[in-house]
Amino acid sequence: MSVSTVTSDTKIEAMSPSRLSILHVYDDTTKCFTRTVTYLNHVYITKMQSDATNPYIQHSVSPSFSEQVAKDFPDVPLEEWDELDELLDEAHDYSSLQEAMNAFFDILILYDYIFV
Fold first, then answer.
1. Contact 87/102 with Cβ under 8 angstroms?
2. Which end of the chain has fewer CB within 10 Å, C or N?
3. Helix or strand run (H / E) with residue 75
4. Residue 5 pLDDT class (50, 70, 90 cuts)
């Protein structure tokens, strides 16, 4: 049985900011806020639509980020992804996006998807 080891260069590559992207956009045609999180070959798209009577209330029109990412990383408790989802919802500047990105990598390290 072969055992694969992750070298420090591979870890650095896996945690490279270019490997993780977070994009928030508003689509005027569907009236949805769309968040796309891409990590390596994984893509997670969540869509939120404003309530017709109160534009400050939004409801999901897609599977949640947590549900989607849990399928690709099943060893991570759903609560961890829920917390990251909240960080992503609140991330609207460089430092808060950086915090969310670091949290994502911390989760992957903690549950042995990236070896330190």
1. no
2. N
3. none
4. very low
Count the Cβ atoms, other than its own, within 10 Å of residue 33: 17
pTM here is 0.77
Question: What mean pLDDT is reported for the chain?
Answer: 83
Which among 47, 48, 103, 107 is positioned nearest to 73, based on CA atoms? 107
> What is the C-alpha separation between 98 and 43, in angstroms, rounded?
18
User: Token pair 């070959």 is at which residue?
Assistant: 41
For 45-92, what is each residue's pLDDT tens digit?
Answer: 999 998 888 877 888 889 999 999 999 999 999 999 999 999 998 888
Rounded Cα–Cα distance for residues 20 and 14 (Å) = 9
From CA 96, how far away is CA 100, in angstroms rounded? 6
DSSP one-letter string for 28-50: TTTTEEEEEEEETTEEEEEEEEE
